[in-house]
Amino acid sequence: MRKKELLASIILFTSIALLLFWQFFIKGLFLFPGNYLVAWFEPYKSETFKNGNILIAHKPVADDVFRHIYPFKTLAVDEMKQWQLP
């Protein structure tokens, strides 16, 4: 009975991961908040309001995504393609 529970939990978590990240496995896309990238460049950085509505939110919190997380993700993927652990 113990092996059946283990196998069922592995199947459950694998199916949840496939369901949540199907675009990564099927289309080759990965998580990257590119909409924050637009807010870093002109004229989008200075044109924030139109008729009282925010066009593009400038989030300085997303600084880590472009300077740290994305380069490390690409480095890790390149290392894994060469069968090395990052």
What does this protein look like?
- This protein has 86 residues and is mainly α.
- It has 4 helices and 2 strands, in the order αααββα.
- It has a two-stranded antiparallel ribbon with strand order 1-2.
- The longest helix is centred in the first third of the chain and has 19 residues, at 2-20.
- The relative contact order is 0.08.
- The mean pLDDT is 77.
The geometry reads as elongated
The arrangement of helices and strands along the chain is: HHHEEH
> What class do helices, strands and sheet pairing give?
mainly alpha
Q: How many E strands?
A: 2
Strand content range: under 5%
Biggest pleated sheet: 2 strands, antiparallel
Write a brief caption for the model.
By secondary structure, the chain is mainly alpha-helical. The chain has 4 helices and 2 strands, in the order αααββα.
Give the topology.
Elements: H1 2-20, H2 22-27, H3 35-38, E1 49-50, E2 53-54, H4 63-81
Antiparallel strand pairs: 1-2
List keywords for this structure.
86 residues, mainly alpha, two-stranded antiparallel sheet, 2 strands, 56% helix
